[in-house]
Design a protein that fits this description.
- Helix content is 40%, strand content 15%.
- By secondary structure, the chain is α/β, with parallel strands linked by helices.
- It has one domain: Nucleotidyltransferase, domain 5 (2-Layer Sandwich).
- Helix 3 packs across helix 4.
- The radius of gyration is 17 Å and the shape is globular.
- It starts with a helix and ends in a 5-residue tail after the last helix.
Length: 201
């Protein structure tokens, strides 16, 4: 994975940012993105696509990633904005904001997925980037841990939806609780049309 990132290095490209988002599929809460830059010689054993790691592994890797990073950042786009502009555009927006928040700006951005966003430096989409790129994989871990922690905090205010357990994803229990109690203020209304037969937002 580190060799993949370093293959982009040139005389003019020395700082490469990886960026990834988490939370496209949930019925509630924001989409969260993270971006991170490492020195070319930095490697952290165990860094991988966050979906391939246990929650315990992600929590253990996070402080190592933050310690070794030249710069990192996190950005969230709310459920309301997702309803306004759709989840794809919200995901791209959150990634762009995350890169913009880096204290050190990169010479190149590696973006997870097949879509990208306009920026002051090239932003290259990498399909399945979180399993190819060290920086993207590290960003996916930062984003996943950040979003999971947020949903656990929000669970205290809306415990009947079991967000501590499902993180807002459409589990059977989550869907049943929506049918019983209706949508919370933090649910993505555009995602609930088939569940609640919503015709208008």
């Amino acid at each position: 994975m580190k060799n993949f990132d370093n293959s982009f290095l040139t005389d003019h490209i020395q700082l490469i940012a990886g960026v990834d988002e988490v939370g496209r599929g949930p019925l509630a809460g924001p989409v969260v993105s993270a971006s991170v830059i490492f020195s070319p010689d930095v490697f952290i054993e165990g860094v991988n696509d966050s979906k391939q790691l246990s929650e315990k592994d992600r929590e253990e890797l996070l402080p190592k990633i933050l310690e070794k990073a030249i710069s990192y950042s996190v950005a969230a786009v709310t459920h309301g904005k997702i309803d306004q502009i759709n989840i794809l555009q919200a995901s791209l927006l959150s990634m762009k904001i995350a890169v913009g928040r880096l204290q050190t700006q990169p010479h190149l951005i590696l973006v997870d997925g097949n879509k990208s966003f306009s920026y002051t430096v090239p932003a290259v989409p990498i399909v399945k980037g979180d399993s190819k790129s060290f920086a993207i994989a590290a960003a996916s871990i930062i984003a996943k841990v950040s979003r999971d922690r947020l949903m656990k905090r929000l669970d205290k205010y809306y415990p009947k939806y079991l967000w501590r357990k499902n993180k807002g994803y459409p589990t059977k229990e989550h869907i049943e609780s929506i049918k019983i109690y209706g949508a919370s203020p933090l649910h993505r209304k555009s995602f609930l049309k088939k569940i609640l037969f919503i015709n208008k937002l």
